[in-house]
Amino acid sequence: MAERGAVLFDLDGTLVDSAADLLHAANVLRARRGLEAFAMAPFRPFVSRGARAMLGASLPGFTPEDEATLAEFLGVYAEAVAAHSRLFPGVESLLDAIEARGLRWGIVTNKAEGLARPLCEALRLLPRCAVLIGGDSLPQRKPHPLPLIEACRRIEAAPAASLYLGDDPRDIEAAHAAGLRGIAVDWGYYDPAHPPGAWGAQRVISAPVHLLDEPLLRERAA
Questions:
Q1: Is residue 102 left, alpha or beta, with left meaning phi > 0 and alpha meaning psi from -120 to 50?
Q2: Cα(181)–Cα(171) distance, rounded to whole angstroms?
């Protein structure tokens, strides 16, 4: 019997365009400090790198050791985690197609689970995904392979038969280390100076529908 595969996704920048809500939180902090609003264009490349990277880009004087400011940012963000966040175009149809093929899919993100769950619930992803692992769900986070290995274990999927899609080099590093096929997406928040083609991914796709020609999905098509 063939090994059972699954499709795992990163969250921000892969399934969900959450940049507007994250920028709003950063700009609340800027306003509290008497600073003008920060623009989306210079902020966007930092979204998939985590809260510290976003604050480092948007808040003068912030250092990674500044836990108080980090907590302030996350607190503001938690108040409106899905006010303006939306699925990227084509994601809904892709998830429908995955489910129609009888495949399980899940989410492995470095976003704290306490933030990822309400976001996924608001976008009606939570009841559909077979597994959700956040950045604080386990002792390790991406690029360590543990979150992907554990996600596969929970849904009884074989890593070697499974796919992981992400918009950050750490996603591809984690996929390779865990034994999944790493697929980079080019609609996310990456730095234009370091595009997905430079990450060592086994494939780069520019639209969700392109995933449907992967053997895992093609073989299960009706």
A1: left
A2: 11
What are the pLDDT digits (tens) for 73-128?
999 999 999 999 999 999 999 999 999 999 999 999 999 999 999 999 999 999 99
Quick one: 90 and 176 in the same domain?
A: yes
Going 115 to 116 to 119 to 121, the CA torsion angle's sign is negative
Mean pLDDT, the chain, integer: 96
- Identify the domain containing residue 148 by its residue range: 6-17+85-219
Q: Which residue has the tokens 């083609």?
A: 197
SS3 content of the chain, % helix, strand, coil (to 5): 45, 10, 45
> 9: which DSSP letter?
E
To which residue do tokens 């543990």 refer? 146
Q: Which amino acids are annotated catalytic?
A: 10
One-letter amino acid at 216 equals: L
Residues 24 and 120 in one domain: no
Q: Flag whether 1 is in a domain.
A: no
Evaluate whether 222 touches 45 at the Cβ level (below 8 Å). no
- Counted domains in the chain: 2
Same domain? For 13 and 29 the reply is no
pLDDT digits (tens, 9 = 90+) for 29-40: 999 999 999 999
Report the SS3 class of residue 1.
coil
